[in-house]
Amino acid sequence: MDRRATPMSWEKTSRKLQVPAKRYRIGELVRCSPFSRQTIHNYTIMGLIREAEWTEGGHRLYDESVFDRLSRIMELRESMSLGEIRRVLNEEERTVRGLRDEGGCRTSAR
């Protein structure tokens, strides 16, 4: 019997690596997007995007989902006002939540 150590394959382990969530400050969003600091701030105040948390110093931190949200805002901005965009984004969010809830009910009913 060969006792040399062999690398553990991903399939053979039940452990899953937990990747820490990346948080972005407004300055990082500005560097990674075409939006200004003021626009990011305004979109947050308007509820178009949401901060994931705050630092102890009172700075807003955003998670990675903000990039998808900003991309969607850019797409909608071509033909809609910010008020219309807010309504569309809120409706899309409700739809996704509803689908998740439906899926959860089906799963738990089994």
UniProtKB/TrEMBL annotation:
Is DNA-binding set as a keyword in this record? yes
Q: Which domain of life is it from?
A: Bacteria
Chain ranges of the HTH merR-type domain: 23-91
| Pfam families, A to Z | MerR_1
Q: Which GO terms describe its molecular function?
A: DNA binding; DNA-binding transcription factor activity
Q: Which SUPFAM superfamilies match?
A: Putative DNA-binding domain (SSF46955)
Q: Sorted alphabetically, which InterPro entries does this protein's record hold?
A: DNA-bd_dom_put_sf (IPR009061), MerR-type_HTH_dom (IPR000551), MerR_fam (IPR047057)
Q: Which SMART domains match?
A: HTH_MERR
Entry keywords, A to Z:
DNA-binding
Q: Does the keyword Metal-binding apply?
A: no
Q: What is this protein called?
A: MerR family transcriptional regulator
Q: Can you name the source organism?
A: Anaerobaca lacustris
Question: Which taxonomic lineage is given here?
Answer: Bacteria, Pseudomonadati, Planctomycetota, Phycisphaerae, Sedimentisphaerales
